[in-house]
C-alpha cells in the first residue's frame, strides 16, 4: 500500500458521516460512551368530546304543540298568589312582517330557529271592533296587565320597574301550561324584562336568542320567548296599547 493510500484509509476510518438533525462528530463515538436517553412517557389527556346539539325534525313542533298549524294555542299562567291568566292566539309564521297579524286578528307571529327555540309575538293592549264602546283584550294583554297593572280604559304613565321585577319573580314560581287541540305541556318561567318605548329599536327581529339576550338570559335549553307588541294609535290612546315590549322566557 502506498503512503497516499494509507493516509486515505486512516482518514475514512476516523471520520463519521454526518446525519441530518444529528450532532456532527469529528471522531466516532466509542460504543461505551453512547448513553441511551430515557424515554419520557408524556401523559396523554383524553380530548373532551363536545357533542353537537341535536336539531329537531320540525322546529315548530314543541313537544307536541304545533306552531306551524292553525289551531289556537293557549299559554295559561297560574301565579302562586291565586287566579290565572292566558296568552291565547292563533299562530302565524309571518311572510309580510307584522302585516300578517295586525291588531284585532287575534293572531300572534311565531318564528322558530334551527334549535327549536320559538318566539311568540302577541299584541298587548285592547281593541274595539265597532263604534260601540266595547273593548276586547288582545292576545298578550292579560300578561301585560299582570306585570304592569291597569285596564283597557287606563292610560299608564307611571311605569314601575320595581313592580315589574316583583311580578316577574312571582311568575318564576308559577305553574304554566301550554295547550293546543288536546295536547299540553308544562313550562316554567326562566325570567323576563322590558324594552321601554324609547329603546324599541333594540328588538329588531323575532330571533329568540337575540330577544332573550336583550334581557340578559342565555337560552341553554329549548325555550319559548314571548315578546309583546304595543303601540299608541293617537295621542288620546284610543284604542289603547302598551308602549313597551315585554319579554318573558319559558322552558
Main features:
single chain, 4 helices, alpha+beta, Sortase, Chain: A
What does this structure look like?
- The protein is of the alpha+beta class and 251 residues long.
- It has two domains: 3-32, no CATH class; 61-250, Sortase, Chain: A (Beta Barrel), CATH 2.40.260.
- Helix content is 15%, strand content 24%.
- The chain has four helices and 13 strands.
- Strands 10-9-3-4-5-6-12-13-11 form a nine-stranded mixed beta sheet, with helices on both faces. Strands 1-2 form a two-stranded antiparallel ribbon.
- A hairpin with a 5-residue loop joins strand 5 (107-112) and strand 6.
- It is globular.
- The chain starts with a helix and ends with a strand.
- Mean pLDDT is 79; it is low at 6-29, 37-42 and 233-240.
Question: Secondary structure elements and their pairing?
Answer:
Blueprint (H helix, E strand, L loop, with lengths): L2 H12 L46 E2 L2 E2 L6 E6 L6 E8 L14 E6 L5 E4 L4 E2 L8 E2 L3 H8 L12 H11 L3 E6 L2 E5 L1 E7 L12 H7 L9 E4 L17 E6 L1
Parallel strand pairs: 4-5, 6-12
Antiparallel strand pairs: 1-2, 3-4, 3-9, 5-6, 7-8, 9-10, 11-13, 12-13
What proportion of the residues is helical, as a percent range? Answer: 10-25%
Net shape: globular
CATH architectural designation of the largest domain = Beta Barrel
Q: Provide the number of structural domains.
A: 2
Measured by DSSP, the beta-strand proportion falls in 15-25%
Biggest sheet features: 9 strands, mixed
Number of strands: 13
Strand order of the largest sheet: 10-9-3-4-5-6-12-13-11
State the separation between the terminal residues, measured CA to CA: 97 Å
Output the helix-strand order: HEEEEEEEEHHEEEHEE
| CATH class bucket of the largest domain | Mainly Beta
* Class by alpha and beta content: alpha+beta
Task: Please tell me how large the radius of gyration is.
Answer: 35 Å
Count every helix, treating DSSP H or I runs of 4 or more residues as helices: 4
